[in-house]
Amino acid sequence: MALLIAYSVRNFWRRRVTMGFTVAGLGLVVFVFVAVLMLAHGLETALVSTGTSENAIVLRKGASTEMASGVYRDQTQILRALPEVASEQGGQGRAAAELVVLLNLRKRGAAAPANVMLRAVTPESLTLRPQVRLTAGRMLHPGTTEIITGAQIARRFQHAGLGDTLRLGKRDWTVVGVFEAGGSAFESEIWGDADQMMAAYGREAFSSVTLRLPMPADLERLRARMESDPRLSSLQVKRERDYYEDKSGMMAAFIRLVGLALTLVFCIGAALGAAITMYGAVANRTAEIGMLRTLGFSPRTILAVFLTESLALGTAGWVAGVASASLLQSVTISTTNWGTFSELAFGFVLSPRIAAQGLLFGLVMALAGGFLPAMRASRLKIVDALAERAA
Question: DSSP secondary structure string, 116-171?
Fold first, then answer.
């Protein structure tokens, strides 16, 4: 076995230029494959991390988004008082009634505007979302025309940075703070005082109510109580994490579909490249294969040697591809969230699962390209191989 390992290593060194191009081709395909998965995973992470299992969100029945929903003030007070809602020390239920409005703002350095989500919040909104933290400025004061902007909004849109003034709802609003939210979709929102925003936009109903559950398992009891109460029968309740996860499903699937179709094209080229490399290796080593057979190595062993070399190429391509794709984690892109039709910024996210899928993909490509050359090497007859050497 040591002889075979040394033999393969020597061959790699002798054909290092050809092998290097093959590894580069395999690495490129692995890079595209992993980058597509990272992009879809980044979108899912940005949206799913927006919600938590401890929170529930209440919407009007039939509404799939907050913008299409409406919850009246009296319903909000009833929800706050339900026993299935966690209470603060004073006995008041932990609930945040919020209004969501779409804005049209211009990006920095671009003439075309984009939709941005405005969320009218209350002090409870922050306590229910511990991932939100100010990175610049201060928190807005209730009852004032002050707003805070998500980090992605402050970075990408005009007049949305700290100290700037935005014209919203025929009023001027001052940006007094910038916040981050662990890479979630909240970073692509603008937050302002609920009462002031409702007055500015002439709204009488909230878009949604977010509730904190004493235990995640209390959701079903809360749902049953709401369905049995005529005052709340027009409302529906979902786990907050599930609500945001639903918003990512279709778009993430589309990214994977388009990306994997592109990967398939590259995959065919990479597999052909691996096959050409391995066929060349067999052709140049015919005499050596005959000597190995003469020394007593079986066709199965020869097959295993060439397949192992193919797998080594696939592993090297995987290392190169994943290492290159990992650099994309510093890149942030933006697109329109199909669920809300608003701007959403997110990044590439590499996970151990994606890295493992990239390894499997690279090995399968290498095997696809190396199997037939390996079979040819294992089927060479000793007499033919030695005759070629003599010639």
Answer: EEEEEE-HHHHHT-TT-EEEEE-PPPTTSSEEEEEHHHHHHBTT-STT-EEEETTE
**Strand spans (E) along the chain:** 55-60, 95-106, 113-121, 133-137, 146-150, 165-168, 171-180, 189-193, 208-212, 235-239, 332-337, 342-347
pLDDT digits (tens, 9 = 90+) for 224-276: 999 999 999 999 999 998 888 877 666 777 777 777 777 777 777 766 776 67
Distance of alpha carbon 112 from alpha carbon 354, whole angstroms: 35
3-state secondary structure of 189: strand
Which residues are within 8 A (CB) of 302 and not within 5 positions of it... i.e. 6 or more apart?
Answer: 289, 292, 293, 374, 377, 378, 380
pLDDT 10s digits, 109-139: 777 788 899 999 998 998 899 889 999 999 9
Instruction: Enter the pTM of the model.
Output: 0.76
How does 237-254 read in b/e, with b if 16+ C-beta sit within 10 Å? bbbbbebbbebbeebbee
Angle at 354 between CA 348 and CA 360, to 5 degrees: 140
Q: State how far the Cα of 284 lies from the Cα of 86, in Å rounded to an integer.
A: 74
Q: What is the rounded distance in angstroms from the CA atom of residue 156 to the CA atom of residue 239?
A: 31
Nearest to 347 by CA among 155, 215, 178, 190: 155
Identify whether the C-beta of residue 336 lies closer than 8 Å to the C-beta of residue 272: no
Bridge-based pairing of strands 171-180 and 235-239 is unpaired
Strand partners, 175: 147
